[in-house]
Amino acid sequence: MEGIHLLGLVQxxxxxxxxxxxxxxxxxxxxxxxxxxxxxxxGFDLKPTExxxxxxxxxxxxxxxxxxxxxAGFAQSRVSTAVASLCRRGYTDIERDAxxxxxxxxxxxxxxxxxxxxxxxxxxLPLVATLFPESSADQAEQTMRxxxxxxxxxxxxxxxxxxxxxxxxxx
Length: 171
Prior knowledge:
The protein is mainly α. 69% of the residues lie in helices and 7% in strands. The protein has helices at residues 2-15, 20-42, 48-60, 65-72, 76-88, 110-121, 125-131, 137-164, and strands at residues 63-64, 92-96, 104-108. A 3-stranded antiparallel sheet has the order 1-3-2. Helix 3 crosses helix 4 (65-72) and helix 4 packs across helix 5. The longest helix has 28 residues, at 137-164.
């Protein structure tokens, strides 16, 4: 019975009219809406590019300007400008790479930790509710439950990829 339900669900997705490009754009737009909401509700003095830089650092730790640019999909000059602004305000710090002194490494500053704590305390439901102004509170909560299921599925998928990644031998 579950197989029939799953087949119906997949067929429904095929008929939904969303392709992978649409899904990618949806993800980017959701990120932009989330970043805007975080900035507005917590009173962060961060621009979207700066939020993206901080997100890359939180996810990956110490990174070079070039690595941040790759993660963020921005030009290095844009990342450099954002990092300089973040450094002036205590969100990031600059270090020289221990193995290559020419390379600039960006690390999270003390203020970034404060922002992270505040951001984790912000509920997503108000944003989701504003995205569906014609929906009821029950529908917004159902959407939140579906998003939580999606998050768990993506977490499981990422964990599976980490487990199946080849381990480099130290020769």
